[in-house]
Amino acid sequence: MSNPVIEAPPTAAAVTWQEGEVLARRASARHKRKRLALLVAGWAAMLGIWQVAAYYLPFGTLPNPLEVGAEMWDIVAGGALVSDLFASIAKTAVGFAVAGAIGAPVGYLMGRYNYWKAFFHDGVTVAGTIPALTYAVLSLIIFGLSDLGPVLAVALVSTPYVALNVAEGIRGVDQSLVKMSQAFGRSPRQIRREVFVPTIVPYVFAAIRMSFAVAWKVEALTEVFGGTNGVGFQIRNEYQLFNITGVIAWMGLFIVFMLLVERLVLRKLEQRVLAWRPDERAVQ
Amino acid sequence: MTQTVTRRRSAEEMAGDAPAWRGRLTSNPAARSTFYVAAFLTWLLLAALFERIPGPASVVDRLIEEFRRGEVFGNFADTFYRFSIGVALSVVAGILIGVLIGLSPMARAFLESPVMVGLSIPAIMWAFLTVMWFGFGHMSPIVTTFLTAVPFVILNVAQGVQGVSRDLRDMSSSYGIPLTRRVRDLVLPAVSGYVLAGVRFAVIMGWNGVLLAEWFGGSGGAGYRARYWYDANQFAGFAAWVVLFVGVIIVLDQLVFEKASRRAFRWRDQTH
Amino acid sequence: MAVLTVKDLCKTFGAGTARSNRVLDHISFDVRGQTFVSIVGPSGCGKSTLLNIISGVEDHTSGHISVTGDSGSPARLGYVFQDPRLLPWRSVRKNMLYVQDSADEAAGTRVDRYLDMVGLSKHGDFFPGQLSGGMQQRVGIARAFAVEPDLLIMDEPFSHLDAITARGLRAQLQEIWSHSKKTVVFVTHDVVEAVELSDRIIVLQPGGKIFEDIEIDLPRPRRQSDPAVATLQAEVLARLENMKALTPTVASAV
Fold this sequence. Notes:
The complex is a heterotrimer.
Chain A: H1 17-56, H2 65-78, H3 80-112, H4 114-129, H5 132-143, H6 148-171, H7 175-183, H8 188-226, H9 231-240, H10 244-273, H11 278-283
Helix pairs in contact in A: 2-10, 3-4, 3-6, 3-8, 4-6, 5-6, 5-8, 6-8, 8-9, 8-10, 9-10
Chain B: E1 4-7, H1 20-25, H2 28-49, H3 56-69, H4 71-103, H5 105-120, H6 123-134, H7 139-163, H8 166-174, H9 179-217, H10 222-231, H11 235-264, H12 266-270
Helix pairs in contact in B: 3-11, 4-5, 4-7, 4-9, 4-10, 5-7, 6-7, 6-9, 7-9, 9-10, 9-11, 10-11
Chain C: E1 2-13, E2 21-32, E3 36-40, H1 47-55, E4 62-69, E5 77-80, H2 92-98, H3 105-117, H4 133-146, E6 151-155, H5 163-180, E7 184-188, H6 191-197, E8 200-205, E9 209-215, H7 227-246
Parallel strand pairs in C: 3-7, 3-8, 5-6, 6-7
Antiparallel strand pairs in C: 1-2, 1-4, 8-9
């Protein structure tokens, strides 16, 4: 690749404006088709490697994709999915709400005032580096076998993310806009609403997307250690029965759910809220 | 017509009347020490409230005990051996794949889904599976560390390579600068910070991975030892090990990566 | 009737320390209502500092400064900055409404009127990111006029634009100003621009003293091509050359 800048080869010269429009549309459709094909190829390659690995690994240690797919279908059709998946989602959501309620104000203080930045800095850094295993076991020690364990673990692991991102967002506020607002005599409340909040929205989205991925893992982990229901609980059950197909099937269902939430909910929501950004518009 | 006069006060008029002791109390070192005192008091309070939470005294006791028995160094040597091999592999593989994704939109379309899936597979799954595949031994923690860390390295490196803005690339290719110099002078300085962030993420994720694999693996290591105390219902022993492996990761993170990333992002911070 | 009164104004950075630096040195002047006054000077003469003190962003060390308004208390100020400083997440129209004190119908019509004056009535629902730099600066100017300020402060508003865009905007500014007759303090380092736009030019010299106070008595609208304008521009420039000769340290700064 000698020149990575030029991505699309020049098409035949358009005679009229309308023709140019048509050509451009065709080129973009071709580009889209190619992307889709590669996306499918990516999935196919993944499943292919899995299939090959399942073939060569000792019998019973890695079921092939088809077996897992059948098991996933059984779980969905049997109705077990709904109750356990929702139990896990509910716990993650509550834990995340707690993280937001604590992390956002802490982040605001850290971004706004030097004193609070110095005060919280070490704590937030340390909390962010502590292995998730610690949070899971700690929550279990505190609450025993209860739904509160996973909630606490999710809250503990997500709070530093929220705080750090909100703080970064506040520091990313364009001071020239703040000065402009003050010059025109806007009240602190107006400046908060019109300058600060819109600035930190993208950072909050980043925090949600990042900790969403981390939070559910910790939630599942805590359930594996000592849950009474939920996906992690099911994974442990299957593991104890040495049913690897069941373990992978449960995990696969959760991953499918995660990807759906990420693609269909978070990304769409972000595009709508951030419509003012030139690069976001280009994506649509 | 109601006329009003807005007069600006001069600095001489605004007598500075903030006392000196307030300045000292609100300084950064004071804020940090206040935090540590507050955190310690919270620990004491929690230990007093919940019977199951061990207090500082019993944790320190256990810690000394573990050192005296010689459990600490042997187990940490095991853990470090597995951890460093896993992380090193993930960094090498992650940089290669990340650069590929960052440079070519087609590679991105192809590899995006596998990386997304990799990101959402929890470390515990890898711990379960690798124990089944490779049995108890070094292999399971190493592979777990590698597999949990590698998607994060890929993601960060790809982001960095893409972040070498179009302008930079346009400019350099239009002036006919050869590829090797372009990579050395433009891509590397801009990307190194992201690579470092990726490695840092890999270290944090990999540390969790190795501990989990050891927890379930039963072949020694810090994770195994922590589980030993947990299973024995000796939470002070567990907490002592938590202190150890949290301490290690923080020392690693702060002393090595914090300094290195400050260096790598120097070009960016100075423009502000 | 003076809208802006400045008397014996001094500003020293790091007062009392070894590195103390006096940037404004006993400055006194008045600005009458409905006049367009330019403050001109080489970089480092304290223009920006003076502007910051007028707008209240910075404190002064000693002296007196006041803004008299008839729109209530405190006096209402309008600003045009070097860069447009628009909220990127709000539409053009909402950006202008943001700095209005009330969100009533009168504010809305005022905003529309000034948006129309800068020729952007069709772009009210655009985001700033969708406009060119020149258009954004026009929004900035319309925004400042639309608050109907007692004193309008403009800080080198055309210095970041290309020459042709800047010329178009100067013509537009003259037109809006002759309609609204707001009191304007216009800071620039460009003498030619100052002569074209102002009723009066205050020239600052390095060290923060007033070097000269020049009345410009030419009929409006003024055009660059007008010989009277060109002659006066040349004359003022010649006088400034004189300042360079008097204060050799600035020779390199201008």
